[in-house]
Write a structure and sequence with these properties.
globular, 8 strands, alpha/beta, 4-stranded mixed sheet, 2,3-Dihydroxybiphenyl 1,2-Dioxygenase, domain 1, 138 residues, 23% helix, 2 domains
């Protein structure tokens, strides 16, 4: 018997500098915040939101994307663990627009590539975490 699941509930990335990472993810993705600890939070709120570790969790469709600022080293997709995070977009045109937007933000990327099953646009966040936008073929 296998576990039945239909989607990811959330993905959380460990980062070194929450201010730099939030600035990047806000500028690139503009996702709404689902959970964050308010600066003026009382002790009860701090205890309730302990799982944030001083980070933030964004709403991403029916899932969540979190940033956890406790990294003690640097990202390497060749280590055991995360290789990259891929975000779905609807068309090749959206990838071209995203490449232009990344250019405007000064974010280096690999350009739009045809991989047969679709198109990808690869780039990295401030910690070097590999990110990808994917548009299916057709």
């Amino acid at each position: 018997m296998a576990i039945t699941t239909h989607a990811f509930a959330h993905v959380r990335l460990t980062v070194t500098d929450i201010a730099a990472s939030r600035a990047f993810y806000d500028a690139v993705f503009g996702l709404p915040v689902a959970f964050e600890l308010p600066d003026d939070a009382d002790e009860a709120t701090r205890q309730q939101l302990w799982f944030l570790f001083g980070g933030v969790i964004y709403k991403l469709g029916d899932s969540l994307l979190g940033l956890r600022p406790v990294a003690s080293d640097s990202f390497d997709e060749d280590r055991v663990g995360l290789d990259h995070v891929s975000f779905l977009v609807t068309s090749r045109d959206e990838l071209d627009e995203a490449a232009a937007m990344l250019d405007g933000l000064g974010v280096q990327h690999g350009g739009v590539k045809d991989i047969g099953a679709g198109f990808i646009l690869e780039f990295r966040d401030p910690d070097g975490i590999a990110l990808e936008l994917f548009a299916p073929q057709g």
